[in-house]
Amino acid sequence: MNAGHTKVSLWIAALININAIVGGAFFIIAPKISAITGGYAPLAWVGCALILFPVAVVFSRFAKKFPYAGGIYIYSKKALGKLAGFTAGWTYFVGGATGNAVLIDAFAEQILTIPYVANIFYTIGINKLGLSLVCTALCAILALHGIEIMEAAQIAISWVKIVPFVILAIGCIFLTKLNHLTTIVPQNNWFSDSLPLIIFSYIGIETCNSIAHKIKNGAENVSKATYISLFTTAVIYSVAHLGLILSMGTGGAKQGAFTRLAWIIGNKIGPSVATILSNLVLFSVAISYLGGAYSVFCSNNWILHSMSSGLKGPSKEWLAILNSKSEPTICIILQGIIMMTALVLGSKNPTWMIQASTVCVIFSFAVTVISYLKIFSIPYVLSGLSATLSVALMVFFATKELVESGFTAAITTASIAVAGVIVYLADRANSN
User: Fold this and answer.
1) 30 phi-psi bin (left φ>0, alpha ψ -120 to 50, beta other)
2) Contact 226/53 with Cβ under 8 angstroms?
3) Which letter does DSSP use for residue 8 in this model?
4) Angle in degrees, CA 292, 294, 300, rounded to 5
5) pLDDT-wise least confident of 4-13, 201-210, 266-275
């Protein structure tokens, strides 16, 4: 089979989504969720998954109707026109690229906490920013080499990600105490207070929609992958969090809980084993960050490539260029440049990047749900209205976080959206 026409299976598609969703962020926010919800943490994860299920239905049905490259851009363009499609596609693309920069930055910071690894990089003169830029270039190079590399990477990343969960399973066997469920007192509004943290931990169920043309029987399998990834992620999050509380008790509400658990288990054998296991968890969490960034990077390029169809100037031809592996060369390079720029500007304080990325992605979700209401309005009213409520909740929390983050994040987000519209309108004007 020609390399440029290779397609991946349903299960690889599901892995792409899952690796995009289950990044290293879970290992960081799980202790925060424990502190808010106490023993109710698993219920919070399941409850939030149910809230987001209507959004999954939207992406699933769109995948069946429009199984093409471009995902959100295509859906919005078909329903609301070229300008709405371009705006939704642009905000999603830049939001994804900025979010990738956050994940790459987190990878570099995490990997440099491992003494032996840090010594190697510092010896050759590579600091956190330098390592982040190198990893961004690596993502671009791998993306240029096609879906086969991505398929192998998804399998490898998934195996590495399993390590902390294996450590957790061992911890549950030897350290579980049922009274740990009541040692952390939940806050009065534990569910609503945990939603802002949890709701964004499921973003990524739509990743494969952008590369439906790269998936065997894309119309059916992308739709199935959406449901599989949401269900699997909900199970992983809720079961893992239950295990964390049962094995660690109040320790499960402190940062670095997974690393400390590895140390406790290893120390039963000896200090050297404790060091190895704790560093192994640190490495696995770091790879989780990198794997999430790589998954989104590869799919995000096709959003921009599809947007070229709505342009008329020279940029239409540039963005449409495919290499010998049928990958969008200029789009990959452009995404890499955006990520590197974000890293240089925000590596010392990535908070603004997180909020800008989140608002951009949620905005594109909102446009997608509006598009769904227009195209599927008669036969699927209930699912459309449910999705509207779900995305309204996401918009509320995203806007709240953005306002609380201050001037920089708000201006950055507005500038991203406006810049996309200006580029589109300028292109259309110059071509007339």
Assistant:
1) alpha
2) no
3) B
4) 100
5) 4-13
Instruction: Report how far Cα 264 is from the mean position of its chain's Cα atoms.
Output: 31
Each residue's pLDDT tens digit, 90-117: 999 988 998 899 899 989 999 999 988 9
> What pLDDT, on a 0 to 100 scale, did the predictor assign at position 1?
36
For the record, the structure tokens of 163 come out as: 């390590």
Residues in the chain: 432
The rounded distance, in Å, linking the Cα atoms of 133 and 340 is: 6
Q: Confidence band (pLDDT; 50, 70, 90) for 395? A: confident
- Alpha-carbon span 427 to 316, nearest angstrom: 9
The gap between the terminal CA atoms of the chain, to the nearest Å, is 42
79/266 Cα distance (integer angstroms): 56
pLDDT at 330 over 90: yes
Neighbours of 119 (CB within 10 A): 11
Q: What angle do CA 232, 234, 237 make, to 5 degrees?
A: 105
Model confidence pLDDT, tens digit, residues 348-394: 777 777 777 888 888 899 999 999 999 987 767 788 889 999 999 88
Give the number of other CB atoms < 10 A from CB of residue 14: 22
Residue 250 to residue 283: CA distance in whole angstroms: 24
What would the mean pLDDT of 169-182 be, rounded to a whole number?
Answer: 90
Residues near 34 by Cβ (< 8 Å), separated by ≥ 6? 41, 184, 241, 244, 245, 252, 253, 257
Closest C-alpha to 401, from 345, 362, 343: 362
With bands split at pLDDT 50, 70 and 90, how would you rate the model's confidence at 2? very low
323: which residues sit within 8 A by CB, 6+ positions away? 144, 329
Q: Which two tokens stand for residue 411?
A: 């201006």
Kindly report the CA angle at 154 between 330 and 115, in degrees rounded to 5?
95
pLDDT, mean over the chain:
87
Tokens of 215: 């998936």
Q: Do 328 and 69 form a contact (C-beta atoms < 8 A)?
A: no
Pairwise CA distance, residues 149 & 260, whole Å: 34
pLDDT > 80? residue 314: no
Domains of the chain: 3-431 (1.20.1740.10)
Task: Quote the pLDDT of residue 42.
Answer: 92
**Cα–Cα distance, 279 to 277 (Å, whole number):** 5
